[in-house]
């Protein structure tokens, strides 16, 4: 199934995306809440009801109400939290090589993550950025999951059962803000907290079964052969594969849930795929050619990310109508 959150007038709704159309779940089954938050909190019982609705739509048993006029939102518009991982060794190694530092051995010892702003989640559409964000504004091509049930101290061998679905994720990054604050060994914060984009749908794990592959040697959990690409203004700038994740989502969940609850609606990103951001691409370009021209996102740029089975996530970069700068406030 592909779940979608959308808005008609001022009301948010939950639907199924089926054959190019959105069908409201609550209109098909009144026991299914009309928003993603309550639906996820209902756990497996509501998921089974949604599966039946999806099957009935496909076989024509019921004629669901098709939504005509709507605004697409992030699939999980109000996540309970948002974490971002660091699962692709290729990206980490390239970024460190470009800075002329050795690969950090701890990467292979345990998966890590940071918390980002779950109130800055966005879906398809415009991303409004402040002037300081445009000082080396970047995308990050990622895969993300949504937690579907509460858990604590979960072993990696059982963790895939807690995943409600998968999405494309763009972890927007303002690199100058990020690098300045991380000199103080804290963060990232302001360099990351203004926009995290997810969508276009929440795709249930069963739809990815055909793409399942073995995880990397010595690792536990589901892995998938999913092509990942990013185009900026129609030009491909990034290409990778979810199968290159060195740490699986199951292993990341195991660490996230150690000593704390994970909750329905928690979003967890994979971290950037290899070649999946301008920071890495520019660094590699300059390492190979001192005359390489670095590229960063500009107002008006259109960013399109696509992952096999998960759809395409498209955003346009816009600039806020202000000259307010926190970089200018430095003492």
Question: Would you spell out the secondary-structure blueprint of this structure?
Answer:
Layout: E1 2-8, E2 11-18, E3 21-24, H1 25-28, H2 36-41, H3 43-59, E4 66-67, E5 71-72, E6 81-85, H4 89-98, E7 113-116, E8 121-122, E9 125-129, E10 137-138, E11 141-147, E12 151-152, H5 156-159, E13 163-171, E14 173-174, H6 175-182, E15 196-203, E16 212-213, E17 223-224, E18 227-232, E19 235-241, H7 249-256, E20 261-262, E21 266-269, H8 278-288, E22 302-307, E23 311-319
Parallel strand pairs: 6-21, 8-15, 9-23
Antiparallel strand pairs: 1-2, 1-5, 1-15, 2-3, 3-4, 6-7, 10-14, 11-13, 11-21, 12-20, 13-15, 16-17, 18-19, 18-22, 22-23
Structure description:
- The N and C termini lie far apart (52 Å).
- Strands 1, 2, 3, 4, 5, 6, 7, 8, 11, 13, 15 and 21 form a twelve-stranded mixed beta sheet that branches. The protein has a five-stranded mixed beta sheet with strand order 9-23-22-18-19, with no helix packed on it.
- It is built from eight helices and 23 strands.
- 42% of the residues are buried.
- The radius of gyration is 20 Å and the shape is globular.
- Strand 2 and strand 3 form a beta hairpin.
- By secondary structure, it is α+β, with helices and mostly antiparallel strands.
């Amino acid at each position: 199934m592909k779940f979608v959150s959308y808005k008609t007038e001022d009301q948010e709704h939950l639907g199924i995306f089926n054959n190019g159309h959105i069908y409201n779940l609550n209109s098909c089954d009144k026991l299914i809440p009309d928003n993603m938050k309550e639906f996820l909190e209902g756990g497996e019982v509501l998921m089974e009801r949604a599966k039946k609705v999806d099957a009935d739509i496909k076989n024509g048993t019921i004629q669901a109400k098709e939504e005509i006029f709507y605004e697409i939102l992030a699939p999980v518009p109000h996540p309970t939290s948002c974490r971002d991982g660091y699962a692709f060794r290729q990206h980490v190694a390239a970024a460190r090589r470009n800075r002329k530092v050795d690969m950090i051995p701890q990467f292979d010892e345990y998966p890590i993550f940071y918390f980002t702003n779950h109130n800055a989640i966005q879906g398809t559409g415009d991303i409004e950025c402040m002037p300081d964000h445009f000082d080396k504004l970047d995308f990050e091509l990622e895969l993300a999951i949504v937690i579907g049930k509460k858990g604590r101290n979960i072993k990696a061998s059982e963790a895939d059962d807690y995943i409600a679905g998968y999405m494309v994720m763009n972890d927007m990054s303002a690199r100058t803000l990020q690098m300045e604050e991380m000199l103080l060994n804290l963060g990232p914060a302001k360099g990351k907290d203004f926009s995290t984009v997810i969508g276009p749908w929440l795709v249930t794990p069963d739809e990815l079964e055909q793409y399942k592959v073995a995880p990397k040697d010595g690792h536990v959990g589901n892995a998938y052969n999913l092509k990942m690409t990013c185009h900026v203004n129609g030009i491909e700038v990034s290409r990778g594969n979810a199968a290159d994740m060195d740490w699986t989502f199951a292993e990341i969940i195991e660490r996230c849930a150690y000593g704390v609850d994970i909750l329905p609606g928690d979003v967890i990103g994979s971290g950037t795929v290899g070649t999946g951001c301008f920071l890495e691409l520019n660094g590699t370009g300059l390492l190979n050619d001192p005359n390489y021209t670095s590229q960063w996102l500009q107002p008006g740029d259109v960013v399109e990310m696509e992952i096999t089975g998960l759809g395409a996530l498209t955003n346009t970069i816009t600039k806020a109508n202000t000259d307010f700068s926190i970089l200018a406030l430095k003492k």
